[in-house]
């Protein structure tokens, strides 16, 4: 007679506890308080650096919608950034519009161009889509130089920066920082709401499995095109604010290297995460300068090695690494 062994008792499986949303809101409030407090404690140059981090974060937020959430690829995001910068600069230089009005106009112009480019791009994928977007970034610089009467040609356009109002008591660098902070906060709130909606679920379905998404009734062509348009709109808004902060635009500031750097910053920061663009903005702002300080002769080599090192330590980006570290923290039952 065959005797069956008695099964050993197993420990009950504990369900993973969902993070308390109150802690998330508390963390966001603490981060926002630190962002408001920072410009009063830092030197003007460091305030400028933080302002640029916010600008790059907004641009990367749009790129994240396209790459991280819709599953598309773009090597021409710097071109949309340049479109927004020049749209804002032309509105200020040629038509003397108030600064607040240039932001929605620049975003709208970039949205329309992204929508127009998204229609043919929706039929492509992978390497072919990457080459098309790369071509956009390549031909933009000579195109800007050709229309010299409008864009200033190779010399670019020099603009006055927004002056802080007398009632604010802020220095120019602090005022520009807070303007950029307001734009960044609104951009992140809109993106968070978009991703939690039906549109966000459709983008994720397209990213994960296009065939299954189409069977479920998701219109692939519409959402792919809109993803390009939304991505371009965020980049255009960031480019417009860049014009306010720098006070100067030139075609040589928007070469293909900018597009590649933005994509690298997003991958390092973390795809598909709202915190990824912020971490990517820090990477885009500070890593090139650190590379330049390490070795003036080969900053590109140092930059590339740092990217490889980060990808080796954190394959899912810095946001994914932070998430894994937080999960290892023991919690009280």
From TrEMBL:
It is found in: Cell membrane. It is a multi-pass membrane protein. Keywords: Cell membrane, Membrane, Transmembrane, Transmembrane helix. SUPFAM superfamilies: MFS general substrate transporter (SSF103473). Coiled coil: none annotated. The keyword Transcription does not apply. This is Branched-chain amino acid ABC transporter permease. Its main location: membrane. The chain crosses the membrane at residues 23-40, 46-67, 74-92, 98-119, 126-144, 175-195, 226-250, 262-288, 300-323.
